[in-house]
Design a protein that fits this description.
By secondary structure, the protein is an alpha+beta fold. 43% of the residues lie in helices and 20% in strands. It contains 10 helices and 5 strands; from the N terminus they run H-H-H-E-H-E-E-E-E-H-H-H-H-H-H.
Length: 230
């Protein structure tokens, strides 16, 4: 009996428990290969970790992430101490890309969404799922669907917040233009989680890399919505 209890205790210690080991970050499984796929001209890259707790106003930024995401944050994948890995991609001395990934909870487990963005404009150049176990995976991974996000910025997602409530069918809403072409019967929990992952990715990049470039779009959206409500 004693040996059985010891074996159970040993097994429990070996099993990873997120609550005990802290927040979980998201990194590329094979950075050299993945970045070469995204940027064929790459000659080198840097890998850096960003955390809210390393910023003097980290708690404020963390609260703003929740506000701009428009939903509660997951205790495991979106905790205050979650590490975020940013890859800066170079061709010689020229910076040609920024790559960043996030974890978001999905119905079939964690979903890992990586964005490749233009280092000057913040526009989406490409995105892919490193991990996605879902009945919706085939539709979400469809090349044409993924390509439809090319050129979008965080500003477009903030504008979508306004249009979704005020002018749901507006042609100026680029995000809605993409989402409406995704078959309604395939828009399950993992579809919503994946779109949330893209948005969260862009928000974090705006905070960590782009010096709040798109913050005026968020402020303007709040202003317009407040005007409409009054």
């Amino acid at each position: 009996m004693k040996s059985l209890i010891s074996a159970i205790l040993l097994f429990s210690l070996m099993w990873p428990v997120p609550a005990l080991f802290g927040a979980i970050g998201c990194t590329l499984s094979n950075p050299a290969q993945d970045l070469k796929f995204l940027y064929p001209a790459v000659t080198s890259f840097k890998e850096e970790v960003r955390e809210f707790r390393s910023f003097p106003d980290g708690q404020k930024l963390y609260a703003e992430l929740k506000e701009r995401l428009g939903s509660d944050l997951d205790a495991v994948y979106e905790a205050y101490d979650t590490p975020y890995t940013v890859y800066t991609v170079f061709k010689g001395d020229e910076l040609i890309g920024i790559v960043h990934g996030v974890n978001v909870p999905g119905r079939g487990g964690v979903i890992q969404v990586f964005l490749a963005t233009d280092p000057q404009t913040g526009e989406i150049v490409n995105f892919f799922f490193q991990r996605l176990e879902s009945p919706e995976a085939r539709a979400l991974k469809n090349r044409d669907f993924r390509r439809s996000f090319t050129g979008l910025t965080l500003g477009d997602f903030y504008k979508h917040d306004y249009f979704a409530r005020v002018e749901p069918e507006s042609d100026a809403d680029r995000v809605h233009g993409i989402l409406k072409n995704f078959a309604p019967e395939k828009r399950g929990a993992d579809f919503a989680a994946s779109i949330r992952g893209i948005r969260k990715n862009l928000i974090l990049l705006d905070m960590f890399i782009y010096n709040r470039k798109f913050e005026p779009f968020f402020a303007r959206t709040l202003e317009l919505l407040k005007t409409k409500e009054n």
